[in-house]
Amino acid sequence: MMRERQKLESSMASVKALEAELADAIGLIEMAEAEGDADMVADGEGAVAALVKRAENQRLESMLSGEADGNDTYLEIHAGAGGTESQDWAEMLLRMYTRWAEKKGYKLEWLEESEGEGAGIKSATLLVKGPNAYGWLKSEQGVHRLVRISPFDSNARRHTSFSSVTIYPVIDQTIELDIPDKDVRIDVYRSSGAGGQHVNKTESAVRITHLPTGIAVACQTERSQHQNRANCWEMLRSRLYEIELKKKQAETGAFVGEKSEIGWGHQIRSYVLQPYQLVKDLRTGVESRSPDDVLDGDLDPFMAAALAQAIGGKKPDKIEDID
User: Are residues 216 and 303 in the same domain?
Assistant: First the structure.
């Protein structure tokens, strides 16, 4: 209840601040027009335009009212078939989400990373910490498709690569989920990549597989097998909770990204770098002609459109559209 109260108080304070700043900006414009000061009018109009963007962001955040939207979240990336090409694309996606999270002021913790053969990564798991992390990222779940001239092809041919993104929320420790021991298989192995002699020479990495669903989670960042095992259990509980959460969302018609085969016909978004430049979300129709910006973390327009689609709303184009 205290968390809910703090969230409401923060939202109300933000709205009041916007109202006060809007009144100041309008007053500035009126005074500047009366004095014939064109530069001051431009300053006032610039302030109003900035307020429109802030109001839109706050409007969208107010829609993040799902059961777990305010929670931290796990983000998993897996390369599809295609060897080095897909593994390089998976690493590009990892960088894209890392840059997005940094712009949002979120904290990141690496839980698992499996290096690719020659370049890129086979898989990676991150913990994203910050307000509404799951609410923003949940619509990114699905298969992402890249079309480009391959830097790994000596004949400079165009290649298509696929990688998948999986998002699931960190759940409150008070939520109880019964996972019988007979339903899981626990494997321990040596960590790969950087980490020092201790990490690489001992079987500290842990993978837990939930046999009824086939869900597998892994952690290798901690020196202690015990700590990695605890992290894996927490991740598994979150994945199973996410399944139940999405069943509820499906019943209400809410937008969710479905996990599917990593290949043709299953992508949620296409990133085309050659022969033309275009990023298009196949669910919402949102496009960007600046793939470099998108790959540098400019994902908010895609997330906002998915969020608006989930609640049946639309993105306002002018200030009069904002309630």
Answer: yes
- Give the 3-state DSSP-derived string for 203-215, with helices as H, strands as E and coil as C: CCEEEEEECCCCE
* Residue 182 DSSP one-character state: G
Does a structural domain hold residue 316? Answer: no
Q: Of 180, 169, 174, give the one whose Cα is nearest residue 248.
A: 169
pLDDT, greater one: 198 or 97: 97
The rounded distance, in Å, linking the Cα atoms of 117 and 131 is 36
- pLDDT for position 269: 96
* pTM score, whole prediction: 0.73
Report the C-alpha gap between 57 and 36 in whole angstroms.
33
Clarify whether residues 55 and 79 are in a common domain: no
Question: Is the Cβ–Cβ distance between 254 and 226 less than 8 Å?
Answer: no
115 forms beta bridges with 121
Distance in angstroms (rounded) separating the CA atoms of residues 96 and 269: 14
Q: Which of 62, 83, 110 is the last residue of a domain?
A: 62
- Rounded to whole angstroms, the Cα distance separating 58 from 256 reads 22
Nearest to 94 by CA among 72, 117, 75, 116: 75
**Helices and strands of the chain, counted as H and E runs:** 8, 11
- Which CATH number is 179's domain given? 3.30.70.1660
* Residue range(s) defining the domain that contains residue 224: 73-311
Neighbouring CB atoms inside 10 A of 81's CB total 11
Q: Compute the distance between CA of residue 277 and CA of residue 39 in angstroms, rounded to an integer.
A: 38
